[in-house]
């Protein structure tokens, strides 16, 4: 989809769902992060928290006290905004793509045990850098992380520190160059 069309769609839908259910703003936030609109994504991400009900901060379907309490769809939307929004994870048959951003009002965020291709990865994101560690798997099977044709090996239990940006995590046994 053309980025301008996507941006305009999100803006228009936001106008008619200003009191939408709990998962609505997580999807808008993900869309804006994908478009590189970090300030707008942050605002939309924070709207989700209006659906938390005291005293135990349980997700509600709507920002008001109406609708379903303990609304698991809102929890799912929030989780997706973390994984697919701020980690920027996209799953492809041949690779896992990540485009990390630090969460609003945080100096560092850690994602532990993200599973892909039978492996587990930990990610640490700060304002200036991104760390990835392959934590499990066959030590004899080579994995790597790639950006713009440059590759860094992902050796089990060793951390690779990189700048922020768009990366592919690949297993050379599965990765075909097209």
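Sequence proposed for the structure above (178 residues):
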């Amino acid at each position: 989809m053309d980025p301008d069309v996507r941006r305009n769609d999100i803006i228009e839908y936001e106008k008619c769902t200003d009191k939408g259910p709990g998962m609505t703003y997580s999807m808008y936030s993900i869309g804006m992060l994908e478009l590189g609109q970090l300030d707008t994504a942050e605002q939309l991400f924070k709207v989700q928290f209006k659906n938390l009900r005291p005293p135990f901060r349980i997700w509600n379907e709507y920002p008001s006290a109406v609708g379903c309490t303990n609304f698991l769809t809102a929890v799912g939307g929030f989780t997706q905004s973390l994984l697919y929004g701020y980690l920027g994870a996209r799953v492809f048959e041949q690779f896992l793509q990540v485009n990390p951003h630090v969460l609003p009002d945080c100096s560092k965020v850690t994602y532990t045990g993200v599973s892909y291709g039978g492996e587990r990865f930990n990610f640490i994101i700060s304002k200036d850098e991104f760390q990835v560690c392959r934590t499990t798997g066959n030590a004899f099977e080579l994995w790597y992380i790639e950006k713009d044709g440059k590759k860094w090996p992902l050796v089990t239990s060793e951390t690779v520190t990189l700048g922020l940006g768009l990366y592919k995590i690949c297993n050379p046994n599965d990765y075909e160059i097209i």
